[in-house]
Automatic annotation (TrEMBL):
Boundaries of every GH16 domain copy: 22-221
Family statement drawn from the similarity comment of this UniProt entry: Belongs to the glycosyl hydrolase 16 family.
InterPro entries per UniProt: Beta-glucanase-like, Beta-glucanase/XTH, Beta_glucanase, ConA-like_dom_sf, GH16_AS, XET_C, XTH
Organism: Herrania umbratica
Gene: LOC110418604
UniProtKB keywords: Apoplast, Cell wall, Cell wall biogenesis/degradation, Disulfide bond, Glycoprotein, Glycosidase, Hydrolase, Secreted, Signal, Transferase
Main location (coarse class): secreted
GO term, biological process aspect, one: cell wall organization
Enzyme Commission code: 2.4.1.207
Residue numbers annotated as active site: E102 (nucleophile), E106 (proton donor), E106 (nucleophile)
Protein known as: Xyloglucan endotransglucosylase/hydrolase
Record GO terms (molecular function): hydrolase activity, hydrolyzing O-glycosyl compounds; xyloglucan:xyloglucosyl transferase activity
Residues the record marks as carrying a glycan: N110
Record PTM text: Contains at least one intrachain disulfide bond essential for its enzymatic activity.
Pfam families, A to Z: Glyco_hydro_16, XET_C
Amino acid sequence: MESWILGLFVFLFLASAKTSKARNSASFYSNYYVTWGFDHALPINNETEIQLTLDQTSGSGFESKWRYGSGFFHIRMKIPDKNSTGVLTAFYLTSRSSDHDELDFEFLGNNTAPYTLQTNVFANGQGGREQRIHLWFDPTKDFHSYKILWNQHQIVFYVDNVPIRVFKNNRKMGVNYPNQPMQIEGSVWNAEGWASGGKRTDWNQAPFKAYFREFDINGCVLHDYAVEKCYSSHFWWNREKFWKLNPKDLKAYEHVRTKYMYYDYCSRYSKPPPECKSNQ
């Protein structure tokens, strides 16, 4: 069984690499713009890639020009190398409201392998749903694919086409589910206050550089708050094949949970939240 899963991982990784070649031409400015740390953001390779830098003076971040009500969102990232303790590199979706929705990929900087990837889900202002995995590769050495599927049935986080997290729509169980228009954001910033377990950032290692590629967006653009219009099957990511994981992806997902996940918010509670069993 272990060798079968390894073969599946290799297949999904190669599929991700093949797809990336066709998508690498979108300009950063076609769909995104820099929002802070302007002198720490550098478009390169004919604006098909952007370098964000963190030093003691500032980090940097960008966001999409539009808001979305559903989609299959992706980016390719290479995170800072060296001793990056306290450095947080993120790719996420977030709404603009007091009771906000948010879907996070967050790399928690480290000085040794394995590297930690944290995901989190906020719905109607309620977060605290962190899961952490140790990656099966070094994310500082090359670009890798990070995707978020968001439709009215489920949210799935993917790394190199491998599903690492599922959050299903369990409103019938009283669980909030993201349903607000969200923008896409990327950033690198100093989070040593909470992301490093009390360790301080070694600024002698600065500048810390994160790289982002592939700026085309598969999403339903919203200019108002009528998210329901983004649930149409006209959008391919809303069709039935994306309502749940197929058997192959389910096997890969179960393997990630068993072998690479080392923290799950569900384990914090003597009585886990109602969505926990459904999302396994």
